Amino acid sequence: MILGLLKADITEIQVDAIVNAANTSLLGGGGVDGAIHRKGGKAILEECIQIRNKQGGCKTGEAVITTAGNLPSKYVIHTVGPVWNGDKDEKSKLLANCYQNSLNLAVENGIKTIAFPNISTGIYHFPKDKAAQIAVKAVKDFQRIAEIEKILFVCFDDENYQIYKEILGIENK
Ligand code: AR6
């Protein structure tokens, strides 16, 4: 498995699946969720509504999969990060679950390449440094990692990008 880092807009990434930092309603919102629904078109929302009707949305830490509509990827995996409010242990576990459950869904669907945004570090206010440590550890600890070819961390803001660079040991050039 190759672990990569990019500073980019995740809606432009060509991989089998991009991950969305959604909310429990699965009906869209701001941040990366808004960008994915805007660019991906209504096919994504339609599938989200079907999932909602079947299972009543998505719980924090869990993940669901839909088409990627007009996006360059094949699928969108929607996961719901925790809202940061200082309850450190519980929230950290839930954030790790987002990465692990997204990877589980990826393996179940034959997905070989996947891109993650920095879940919970925007509107949900999870401390960026802590979130990055959790994300990298969760991915490295994933049991079925050999079944995935490439995992990309896609940072949108420079602060997250610098944090990931340091954690992953990438030199500044
Ligand atoms: N590509 C990649 N990363 C992005 C993009 C993009 N196009 N846009 C923003 N980010 P956020 P959350 C980064 O707020 O904190 C929504 O309303 C951003 O810089 O999108 O998990 C949902 O519906 C940040 O680092 O998600 C939920 O209600 C990261 O994505 C709520 O926000 C996550 O920021 C979820 O909040």
TrEMBL record:
Coiled coil (residue ranges): none
EC number: 3.1.1.106
InterPro entries, per the entry: Macro_dom (IPR002589), Macro_dom-like (IPR043472)
Pfam families on file: Macro
Keywords from the named record: Hydrolase
Molecular function via GO: O-acetyl-ADP-ribose deacetylase activity
NCBIfam families, alphabetized: PRK00431.1-6 (NF001664)
Name this protein carries in UniProt: O-acetyl-ADP-ribose deacetylase
